[in-house]
Amino acid sequence: MNKLAKEYKGRATFLCLNTRGIPDAKSYKESKGLNEPALLHGAVRPPEEYGLRYIPHKVVIDKGGKVVKNFEGVNLSEDVKALV
To answer: Which of 15, 19, 60, 61 holds its CA 20 to 30 A away from the CA of 8?
Structure first.
């Protein structure tokens, strides 16, 4: 995610959401070396439209806010490239 966030900075937004709270989000971020400033982190429950079923869960959303891929078959490097 660091590499993609850096590569697509200004053209795509990457969010890492943690459902267990800010301290856990910070701990996870540090443990995974997710330090790219363009990679945003938060602690919230994602909207129902994202269909969160598992953790980790990846969702690709287009510029209009439409979910174009949800969990299965998500390949961030290919999917983001196709959308920007």
So the answer is: 19
d(C-alpha 9, C-alpha 76), whole Å: 14
Q: Which residues of 40-68 are buried (b: 16+ CB within 10 A; e: fewer)?
A: eeeeeeeeeebebeeeeebbbbeeeeeee
Q: Where are the alpha helices (DSSP H) in the chain?
A: 2-7, 22-32, 76-83
The reported pTM is 0.70
- Which residues sit opposite 61 in a β-bridge? 67
d(CA 80, CA 47): 21
